[in-house]
Amino acid sequence: MRSTQKSIRYQTPDVIVAVGQGEAMQEFECYKVALSFASPYFDTMLSAGMAEANSNRIEFPDKDPEEWKLLYQFIDPSMIGDINHNRSIDGVVAIKLTPWFHEFQMDSFVQTCDGVLSKKVRFLSKKTLAKNECDVDFWAMSLGRSESESTLRNQSFGSIIELLQFACQYGLEKTRLEAEEVIKLFGESLLSGTRDLFTVEVVRALVQLFLPLEESGDSKSRRLVSRGSSTIYWELLSHRGFEDRCLAGLPHEALCKTEVLTPLAYNFMQLVVKEADSEEKDRELRRIKASLNCKEAELKQIRKSTQSIINELATQWPDNLYQRLAIHNGTNITRANVETSFENVM
């Protein structure tokens, strides 16, 4: 007798996923087993006793139906091996789906997105793989830069800040570290040429990431420690003495407010740049003075050597040589005249 039971791969969907709300809402027929194997979130939701398991319906009213379609390509087993479906993750897909992967605890996909976005930060920073350095010519301030180049420079740095915020929100470790490395470079060795990038809006975003601050140590060695999701900007400020020079005497409740710390941090960075410029000018003046002193010493040595040669020649020439020269040229040439001429040249 022939079995009428369907094969496993041709089983009908057994759960409805409704995404969006109102007229924009769309319903998708899915498989419980596929959702459960793909995500611990769905596995718990569709277990016995849960409302969704009993109603065979899952609702996401605040999500985008088009993003669900994209997400389900990485879940639906019927799409495995289908060359008509592009299951690769690029920068655009990573930004769209990381929140979904993170919420549904799809850790392997979160890690894939992290790798993609960390490479995007590297690309935006114009960093070369060989030397692991940023393109200084691209990032340094320049009066001769075209408007399009300036716009690209500002947009690139803004995107790096946004990716840092995104990485901190969804736990993307590689992306966070890559972005922090760029900010550290721009905030330290390249600050004189990149200070215009640290606008009030950028400083506010970085301050929000390093908050809250907590007091550490006893009364004699009290220090503030960042407990935020990204501590890189606090480390840059602290290294330059921000706490001692700007925060002394502020009440603790003020130390955890973005609106208080943002203008303080922004003004402090401008002060650091002015001090760095002044120090650089002093170093340049010292280099010039040292160079002049060196040239003066060299000139004295040349004069001394030349005078020795003149003296040696003068003692070796006989007096009658000058008389012969005088008779031949019809001029009054003496040893004293020759020596004086040499001295005037020197």
Give a description of the structure.
This protein has helices at residues 32-38, 40-45, 51-55, 65-72, 91-103, 107-124, 136-139, 147-170, 173-187, 191-194, 200-210, 232-239, 242-246, 258-316, 319-329, 335-345, and strands at residues 15-19, 26-30, 57-60, 127-128, 133-134, 213-216, 223-226. Helix 6 (107-124) runs antiparallel to helix 8, helix 6 runs parallel beside helix 9 and helix 8 runs parallel beside helix 11. By secondary structure, the chain is mostly helical. A 3-stranded mixed β-sheet has the order 2-1-3. The chain is built from 16 helices and 7 strands. The longest helix is centred in the C-terminal third of the chain and has 59 residues, at 258-316.
Order of helices and strands: EEHHHEHHHEEHHHHHEEHHHHH
On the 0-100 scale, what is the average pLDDT?
82
The biggest sheet amounts to: 3 strands, mixed
> What's the helix count?
16
Low-confidence stretches: none
Gap between N and C termini: 123 Å
Describe the global form.
Answer: elongated
Strand content: 5-15%
- Overall helicity: 55-70%
- Extended strand count: 7
Structural class: mainly alpha
Cross-sheet strand order for the largest sheet: 2-1-3
- Rg from C-alpha positions? 37 Å
